[in-house]
Amino acid sequence: MGGHECDPYKIPDYKQFTIQGIPQLEELEKALAKKGLKDPWIRNEAWRYHPGFGTPLLRARKLFFRGFPLGLALTVVTVAITKLAGGDDGHGDGHH
Question: Quick one: which H or E segment has residue 41?
């Protein structure tokens, strides 16, 4: 029903994500083992520590500043057009 021949998303193999080599997850596994617990789903968090995903600081910067350059440019253009067109916002005439 209108589908495409190519698959736009390549789903990575779940086996590539392991907690070995990720200190935070290895510590969590050890702490749980001391209490006699095991988290069978802990590997589902391994993707967060994958180098391609970025550091927490990089992810936060992307989140907060992703549209900043475009927004700033559009603001400057809007202010410039308003000034050039002689736009009046009604606040500068001194009357109340």
Answer: none
Q: Is the pTM of this model over 0.90?
A: no
> If residue 38 lies in a helix (H) or strand (E), which one and from where to where?
none
Question: How far is Cα of residue 65 from the mean position of the Cα atoms in its chain?
Answer: 10
Task: For 65-79, write each residue's pLDDT tens digit.
Answer: 888 999 999 999 999
With 60 as the cut, is the pLDDT of residue 24 above it?
A: yes
- Cβ contacts of 30-35, under 8 Å, gap ≥ 24: none
HSE-CB of 25 using CA atoms within 13 angstroms: 18
Distances (CA, A) of 66 to 45, 53, 84, 86, 91: 24, 15, 29, 32, 33
